[in-house]
Every structure is written in structure tokens, then in C-alpha cells.
Design a protein that fits this description.
- The protein has 6 helices and 7 strands; from the N terminus they run ααβαββαββααββ.
- With 238 residues, the protein is α+β, with helices and mostly antiparallel strands.
- It has one domain: Heat Shock Protein 90 (2-Layer Sandwich).
Length: 238
């Protein structure tokens, strides 16, 4: 008898791989066009090395995050979580997103004020999830105010971290629908991205391995996607 759960997992993996492959077309096309341009003018000086470097980094990050997500899901039952300083991690994520954001004319801001205990997480996995989410949102629909906010705040349920923008029409129903059809639709999450949104779903996969998930969230007057993490009882960071 065929294992139905294994079949469902395999189907989700195939859908995610399909959306990742679709998303990779953009950075690879940009790199190819840059090389073609330099060949047409007969000079390597025509190469926009900054654009090539940024797009190559984006593609590699997406692939690495996808593979990490599959690995963590496989190890989920024995996955070891550790105390992670969420404020420091968000600073690192913002730093790595900066050049990509500038290429799209988008600003980044950090809201990390306050005292937070470290959260229990897989540090590499959490960073990869937030990077993947950030890249996906930056190359989605242009934001009217040209700004994304990386933020953390405390709730009774735990410590919430996410990435927010001017997505006032975003709803939980749209997010649930996107999860259902990703990999089978060219634009499963039109509320936030014009493409396959692979980075968003890769982030969801990684967080699921840590027994967490993305959800529609709000920070101050901005809307986006966030995850709730449990604070560590071992340490207190300022």
C-alpha cells in the first residue's frame, strides 16, 4: 500500500521546486543579457558587474535556502534549536539585502528597539528564511513608498519578527489560498509579488521545520508576513 503522507510530501516538494525554477529565470536572464550586451559592444567595460553580482547572489541564496529547507524538514524530529538574538540576526539580514534593495530603488528600515530575550530557533535556518522572504518581496511589485521594514515586537504568544510594507489589502485568506496553489500557478500570491514568489514559500518550508510558520501580520501601520518564535528561558539579551 502506498504511503499517502509520503505522496503528499513529494507533491509539495515538486510544487516548491517548480516555483524555485520559475523564480530563477529572472536573475539568470539578467546575467545573460549583461553578458550579451558586453559582447555586442565588444568590451567587458559594458558589464554591470554590480547587477550581475547581486542577481547571482539572489539566485544562489534561493537555491541554498531551498536545499536547506528540505534538509531541515528531513531532520525535523531531531532538529536542535538554540537561543538566537533576533535583533542581531535582523541586522545581518538587512545588511545582506541592502545592495539588492538599492538596485530596486527600495529603502530598508529596522525596527528592533527594546529588550528581547533570545528566541529558540535554528540560526542558519531562520536567517535563510528571512533572506528568502526579503528577496522575494523586493523583486515583487514596486512599493509606492519604496520601503520595506524588518521588525520585531513582543506579543503574549511570543516574539514576532517579519518583513512589512505597504500591503494594506493583504489578507489571511489570500495567504492560505497562495499556499494551496503555489507551484501550480504563475502568480500564486499576487498581493505581494508579481512572480512565483518562490522565496516566500521556501521561507515557509524552513520555518515549518522549526515548528513555526509564516502568517499575515501587522507592525505599526505596515502589513506583511511574519512568524512567531518562542523566547529562550536560558539567557537575557539587551
Amino acid at each position: 500500500m502506498q504511503d499517502q503522507s509520503a505522496g503528499q510530501t513529494g507533491g509539495r516538494d515538486t510544487q516548491l521546486l517548480r516555483s524555485v525554477a520559475e523564480q530563477l529565470k529572472t536573475p539568470l536572464a539578467i546575467i545573460a543579457r549583461q553578458v550579451e550586451l558586453s559582447e555586442l559592444v565588444g568590451s567587458v567595460d559594458a558589464l554591470d558587474t554590480g547587477a550581475i553580482r547581486t542577481q547571482a547572489t539572489t539566485a544562489l541564496t534561493l537555491v541554498e535556502s531551498y536545499l536547506l529547507g528540505l534538509q531541515l524538514l528531513h531532520e525535523q524530529s531531531e532538529l536542535l534549536l538554540e537561543p538566537v538574538s533576533i535583533s542581531s540576526l535582523l541586522v545581518d539580514v538587512a545588511h545582506e539585502l541592502d545592495s539588492f534593495a538599492r538596485q530596486y530603488g527600495t529603502g530598508l528600515e529596522l525596527h528592533i528597539g527594546g529588550k528581547y530575550q533570545p528566541v529558540m530557533a535554528h540560526q542558519r535556518g531562520l536567517k535563510s528564511a528571512l533572506l528568502s522572504l526579503g528577496y522575494a518581496l523586493l523583486e515583487g511589485y514596486p512599493l509606492q513608498d519604496k520601503k520595506l521594514t524588518l521588525a520585531v515586537h513582543r506579543t503574549p504568544q511570543g516574539i514576532v519578527t517579519g518583513i512589512y510594507g505597504e500591503y494594506e489589502q493583504l489578507s489571511s485568506q489570500q495567504w492560505r489560498r497562495a499556499l494551496e496553489i503555489h507551484g501550480r500557478a504563475g502568480q500564486p500570491f499576487k498581493a505581494m509579488t508579481s512572480g512565483s514568489g518562490a522565496g516566500i514559500f521556501v521561507a515557509q518550508t524552513i520555518l515549518q521545520a522549526m515548528s513555526s510558520k509564516l502568517r499575515v501580520g501587522k507592525h505599526l501601520n505596515r502589513h506583511g508576513l511574519a512568524t512567531t518564535l518562542q523566547p529562550s528561558q536560558q539567557l537575557q539579551f539587551v
